[in-house]
Amino acid sequence: MSSRKWKYTAVLACALMLVSILCFIVLSGRLSGVNPGSYVSASPDPGAEAFTPLQDSTEGIAGMALAAKNDSLSLYINEDTTVIAVKDHRSGEIWYSNPPEMEEDGIATAFEKESIASQVTVSFRNTLGVLDTYTNYKYSISNGQFELQGIKDGVRIEYTLGDAELGIDALPKFISKQRLQEKVLSKLDEVTASYVETRYLVQDANPEVVERADTQVERPLVLRKMLAAFEQAGYTPEDLAYDNEENGIGGPGGTADKPKFLIPVEYRLEGNALSVTVPLSQLEESEGHQIQTLDLLGYFGAAISGQDGYMLVPDGSGSLIHFDNGKVKEPQYVQPVYGQDPNDNSRTRAQIAEPARLPVFGLKSGDRAFFAVIEEGEGNASIAADISGKQNSFNHVFSRHAVRGDDELELYTGSKVQEIQLLSSEKYNGDIRVKYSFLSGDGASYSGMAQAYQTKLVEQGVLQPLAAQEDIPFYVDIVGAIDKQQSFLGVPYDATVPMTTFKEAQGIAAELQAQSISNIQMQYLGWFGAGLEHELPVKLNTSELGKDRELTALREQLNRTGGELYPDVAFQQVYDNGKGFNSASDAARFITKEAAELSPYDRSLNRMSLLQDEYYLLSPAKLPDVTAQFMEQYRKKDMPSLALRDLGSILHSDYRNNSLIFRNTARAIVEEQIGLLAEEYPNLMISGGNAYALQYAQHLVNIPESSSRFNLTDESVPFYQMVIHGYIDYAGEPVNLTTAANMRQQLLHSLELGSAPHFLWTANTSSELKYTRYDYMYSAQYSNWIEDAVSMYDEVNQVLSPLRTEKMQDRIVHQPGVVEVKYSNGASILINYNSETVVARGVSIPAQDYVIGGDPS
What we know:
Protein name: DUF5696 domain-containing protein
Shape: globular
Largest sheet: 12 strands, antiparallel
Radius of gyration: 32 Å
Oligomer: single chain
Pfam families: DUF5696
Organism: Paenibacillus urinalis
Number of helices: 17
InterPro entries: DUF5696
CATH topology of the largest domain: Beta-galactosidase, Chain A, domain 5
């Protein structure tokens, strides 16, 4: 072999070896994904039989048949209208799926009356993207297109929505002369046979086959006569299918281009509640028609105008919409459960709102109420509510369920922007399940609803009573490092700037402990990697802030007085394409199939800021692998506690081809990962507090403290706090980052909510945050706050520490700005937000002050 050939071969071999090594590195570093289908909960077909009413030993309900009964409830159904009714044996109250007073509505149009009479309403798009709406009353019930089936403890109804009639296509388009004579003409009288025969024309190309004369047959009178003749002759659907197949026509005929849906709905009694299920895996759609949303029991328990009551919606901490509030020009309340899906290709934000953390809603009318919990499919659901006096005379609240993901594609043609509506090709195939409970008397209130939900969560093992402790927590977030653009000799570069080193955090803890604050729960943000907005958490380098032993020393110092350290981690937003993350394979996808790359919102413009660093949404399918790699690294830190920044607050979909993940599927994946983390680190601090995270949280921070104050709503209530008080320690947003008027107002609000004080601090000067995306933390320098923080904590702790393990049982508004909060031990707190002294319940309350009352046991 020549020297030149040998050199060439050696170079080629080295190159191949290098490529192989690079491929191995890339492939070995790739994140693995889970199968999303294994996280979808779908009910099997219940094997239902024909519905047979039960014998009713009571006087029952007029016009309705008994479908199921237990010690607490009876379930009835109208076999003609499919209206269901639940009779509560405890109170004697009857709850209807559709208001019996619907005929008294003088406002509703014919379309609205169809909606009021419906149990299911679907919005769908055809192949052209045109949106349409079908109610099951107009397109199923009124035509008798439904089937009642008996199931255990209830009844199942299969609705066929759409035009089930074939029309002209019930007649064969082509048929052989022989079969026309044999199957039709021979069985008719001479006049009718002649009428039919002249409407079929001989084909020139094939004289043995005749073709339907559509120009004649399409006329309504002719069509009716032809259909009657074929029916008289005994021409069957099987005959039609045979003739269509013989002559090369696919399918039975012309329903293919008509919207048609099969939707099963199941009602069951479960203890003292009604469970309503729509098994979406059994839902059927005609070709070219895709359901986007499904409204379930839109008028269950609806209250006609003139009644006293309100609707509870889960906006933020909770919100009430009073009946007949007169806000008829305001839009309907609609809010997604668990907040907006961030996997949204739109650059603008529709609204700034507090997220709905709990999948619940309710309605109080007089001295009775219902309370509903979405038990399955809540990640895809929204809560909707509206008042009387707009489209109709009823106040109503219900759940709306996304069957497909939707998005907009913007096409730019010159100076014009055209928006094309897109739906995901696949539908969600899990179950929708909503459970309705019924309250009466003193329990018929939002306080009673909170107690009912709390009881449910306790029975499920989600909530565990708090152990007695001398003090409430003092929550403090410490900002470790941030990334900031700096320059050297005029050349810009990204630098990691320490805001609080481990030793400085020790100093802050020491100052608090010197002021007799012992129960310090410290969340350490930006403690590894590039800081607050760190890369994928599969490597945990802490060199910018200090050594691992200094982090351990900080934890030990907090532990000495009963506190704890919670290093913070975010999993779902990735700021660095690389270092274990590949956007092509690991990022979630928009419906447009682009990688889900987003930017923080500019509050002044309410749109994404292109001037700030972009980030990717991690595909939920890759989350388990990232979690496993993080846990492997975090074990080396020897930390017993952990803070989860986004797993309890953010939920997003992924529309990747062949691996589509709806939000509810993502919820199941995320909940599984929180559970795995909780097994290894039982002391979890979780931010946000979505319902699926409650079971695993020892501490909740950044929970909603108010509602979004939508125009249609009337009052913010601490429903969320009433559910968890006495079971989980919690706090709202950091006091020093809120826009509240003053510290005194915030202190009073903490007392009303039963919330511990929460601050976010840095040791370094806030001027370091200037010209960064962290400038919203301009008031974070701890030396400016520590004196006020200690004073606030001491006062709040004195009031709330004896109540920490008690249930928050009631909240009463005595007059504007004056509220009373009652606890299970008999204690109460009267709070006056006003700037002058007031008298409530015979007690004088000074301006912007409070009075401890009641008779605590």
